[in-house]
From TrEMBL:
Membrane topology value: Peripheral membrane protein
Recorded GO MF terms: ATP binding
Record's protein name: ABC transporter ATP-binding protein
Source superkingdom: Bacteria
Role, per record: Part of an ABC transporter complex. Responsible for energy coupling to the transport system.
Amino acid sequence: MSKPTAPAPSLEVSGLAYAYPDGHQALFGVNLTVARGERVALLGPNGAGKTTLVLHLNGILDAGAGTVRVAGLPVEKHNLAEIRRRVGIVFQDPDDQLFMPTVREDVAFGPAASGLRGAELEERVTEALEQVGMEGYANRPPHHLSFGQRRRVAVATVLAMRPEILVLDEPSSNLDPASRRELADILRSLDVTVLMVTHDLPYALELCPRAVILSQGAIAADNRTQDLLCDEELMRAHRLELPFGFDPRSVTMGV
């Protein structure tokens, strides 16, 4: 009796290189594998290539060289509809994602565009809002919500597509401490792969057991988040700084 085939990793990036039309080389042979259900922080200084890498994950940018696979599926033109369902990106500013008159309509937009209708669509919307604790706000206009509430709705718009990978761009930015904690609790509860692009190193340590440092278009380090943040020489070399007085060794790592 043959053994069952192991599921493909959520993300496989191999030899990814990319230069912009002006000739600027943003990525140099990036290799990265992220297993199903992992939470990984993508760290690095401004200009390191983090955004360029993320834009390859759902085909917004075409690989100049190398390959990107999502759940075993190559990120290629004929796969883009399925890839964009599987890779959900939550932007830093929720107002870039929320444009409908009500929260319900915003969350329904993606699934409806994919062909869902009626009870199935309503179920998908309700499920996504419940996942982020916003089910009581379905009929509210998004612009009447607090910034933290809008960010949770933005996450719900992506979860409504039932993605394989949730990519978060600076998820803790501009949040008050309570909203920051609430979002962390939500992210821990989700059964998806998470790739978090952030400069908030304590938040990365709190939520992501693993971290990758991208610097000058290449991966400079890939290890346990706590180990990376405790390496003062590595941090200094890649312009990463912890908040004053914060000691990563004092944090008890959870799952």
